[in-house]
Amino acid sequence: MAVHQHTDGRVARGQRTRDAIVEAHTALLREGVLKPTAKVIAERAGISVRTLWLNYKDTETLLGATTAYWLDADAALRTEISPDLPLDQRLEQYLDMRVRRLEHLDPAARSAALGEPFSRALQDSRRQHVDRVRDDLAHVFGPELAAAGERRGVLEAALFVASSWPTWSSLRHDLGLEVDAARAVMRESVARLLLHGPGPGTT
Question: Domain of life, per the record (predicted)?
Answer without folding.
Answer: Bacteria
